[in-house]
Amino acid sequence: SKRHTITLLPGDGIGPEVISVARNVLNLAASIEGIEFKYQEVPVGGAALDLTGVPLPEETLLAAKQSDAVLLGAIGGYKWDKNEKHLKPETGLLKLREGLKVFANLRPATVLPQLVDASTLKREVAEGVDLMVVRELTGGIYFGKPRGFGTNENGEEIGFNTEVYAAYEIDRIARVAFETARKRKGKLCSVDKANVLEASMFWRKRIMAIALEYPDVELSHMYVDNAAMQLVRDPKQFDTIVTNNIFGDILSDEASMITGSIGMLPSASLGESGPGLFEPIHGSAPDIAGQDKANPLATILSAAMLLKYGLGEEKAAKRIEAAVLDTLNKGFRTGDIYSAGTKLVGCKEMGEEVLKSV
Amino acid sequence: SKRHTITLLPGDGIGPEVISVARNVLNLAASIEGIEFKYQEVPVGGAALDLTGVPLPEETLLAAKQSDAVLLGAIGGYKWDKNEKHLKPETGLLKLREGLKVFANLRPATVLPQLVDASTLKREVAEGVDLMVVRELTGGIYFGKPRGFGTNENGEEIGFNTEVYAAYEIDRIARVAFETARKRKGKLCSVDKANVLEASMFWRKRIMAIALEYPDVELSHMYVDNAAMQLVRDPKQFDTIVTNNIFGDILSDEASMITGSIGMLPSASLGESGPGLFEPIHGSAPDIAGQDKANPLATILSAAMLLKYGLGEEKAAKRIEAAVLDTLNKGFRTGDIYSAGTKLVGCKEMGEEVLKSV
Ligand SMILES: CC(C)[C@H](C(=O)O)[C@@H](O)C(=O)O
Ligand SMILES: CC(C)[C@H](C(=O)O)[C@@H](O)C(=O)O
């Protein structure tokens, strides 16, 4: 039987609850498929700050690097909100992405027929939405230098950041995006602000160069302001979207809210080699932490992405995805996706129901 | 009677059609209120490129600067899409904003009861939305230096831009935003990415400093990714939003699409002194240009903003706003806002109907 080492990063807020449930599901699906896991659980974010004084201890990064895949719960909370930048939980997450070199962030936004009414969009607009945002995750304005505080030539105080992309950074995310589109409906929309920004003009130029390698994929370009509109007007027009770090942050969150069920949405962050990082796209939800109210399905589906994209274990991944659909079909719902006529359950019970269907 | 000089910039696509209609409405409302206008019509954008080889001729900027207010139609079109940066119609618009020093861009997004079904959002979510985005318009990554193309320390090709804000730039847009919120429901939400970007941390710090001058306004802060979600989830939670140039570009377009009727939405761009720039938020719509299909109401409402914010002529402004509502109540609709049971009209006829109600 195959063996893999998994690093679990429960993190903050509802993170530990959803990770514990997802771990059980992962275990069962794997054992049925003859896969064996070794787990190591290490702290990140606020949990790591409280324990060690830094949001990403060296041991945590090392453990993550030496494993085959990393499953993260969530990070952040009011408690650390006023911390200085290098002591913010978020900084731990950014350093983890950087350290693992996971430059490609895949964020599916799918409207399940069972949950179409959870969207604030009209049924006919939301129904059938199935898009994937491929977000560049280790470059752009998040990491660009110079950055900081200072004074300008008139002696005025300033704050500044640099949006910068090198050719190789765009080329590699472009290839991931074209490959992703090829496995989906073969349509890729690259989002930029090339009518204003040089970084975006360069982005578009490189995307067009890489497009020559993928003549079978239909490429289009859209300005980011228009993309933010089109996601509301007609999200079904999109198949795969590729964009930079900051535009991807904004648009993937907008897309996820369009589905109406961010408690359901997983994500995968992948590098050239080395372990991938898998996490629900929702936050740490400190207001409901520890109350057994969180929806564990996004983390369970992140575990499925871990199996598929991280370990190439397609069969175990499909098993988990099918179990989640089955559980929804049986009518089980956590509070965030509850509607009249369905069965309200807590985080743990939802996990147990999924286990029954694995 | 009072006299004002107005610069008309019809621009490209549907620009000339909507400007011609709006001019008639402006004229009638003004003459009833005893106001006299002198007009000068000058080219900008693609129209200027074709005529003079540059997207903002010196004469155009000079004419605009020397007038009391500027009314712009729209700029851009496929024809100039592949132009180099300094020969893009968009560059003309950016230079105009810079030249007029109109740092404060006010973008209302209102769902009129008559048009609530035009939104892709469910009726109960869209109904009653009435928010104002105050976007910083002459700073940030749109204008920041250094910018351009080059090579990094590894000799790799790069494209780059600088997001930078000086204290005075944030302070002045903050004051406009607090004043705006004060005249509305007294709630201001500042949108940034202060968990990652130094420019945003500095933004938040200055917003909080200026907030001390406005203890009666309720201030909150929101990360831009969350704001993009919240606009879809529950747009009614917002009253006034203040944000930087690029986030404002994205969020104001998203907010406008949430209303479902971007053919209806005006904008005002204001400086410390000097003429303001007023324009519909929609684009030049080259596909329907010259076909008498465009919705002139956004430009007519921009003319109302011109009267109110640009010239302090509140009564004439109210007259136009009331005439637009009246025309909608009578059931007249252009194609973009048409629904069964209403009367489909073209751009000119819509203008004539509004004139009847002025
Ligand atoms: C927490 C924050 C730093 C992070 C980001 O901006 O990347 C989050 O919003 C995300 O999208 O994963
Ligand atoms: C045309 C373009 C340069 C402009 C901008 O990005 O500011 C437009 O999108 C707008 O919002 O007015």
Could you write a compact summary of the structure shown?
Chain A is an alpha/beta fold and 358 residues long. Chain A has twelve helices and 14 strands.
Q: How many beta-strand segments of chain A?
A: 14
Largest interface: A-B, 61 and 62 residues
Q: Main sheet of chain A: which strands, in order across?
A: 2-1-3-12-11-4-5-10-8-9
N-C termini distance of chain A: 19 Å
Whole-angstrom Rg of chain A = 20 Å
Quaternary state of the chains: homodimer
> How would you sum up the global shape of chain A?
globular
Q: Output the helix-strand order of chain A.
A: EHEHHEHEHEEEHEHEHEHEEHHEEH
Q: How many DSSP H or I helices of chain A?
A: 12
Query: What is bound: which ligands?
Result: 3-isopropylmalic acid
The description of the largest β-sheet of chain A is: 10 strands, mixed
Structural class of chain A: alpha/beta
Indicate the percent of residues in helices of chain A: 40-55%
Q: How large is the share of residues in beta strands of chain A?
A: 15-25%
What is the overall pLDDT average of chain A? 97
Q: Are there runs of chain A of 5+ residues with pLDDT below 50, and where?
A: none
Write a concise keyword list for the protein shown above.
ten-stranded mixed beta sheet; manganese (chains A, B); alpha/beta; two-stranded antiparallel sheet; amino-acid biosynthesis (chains A, B); 23% strand; branched-chain amino acid biosynthesis (chains A, B); homodimer; 12 helices; 14 strands; IsoPropMal-DH-like_dom (chains A, B); metal-binding (chains A, B)
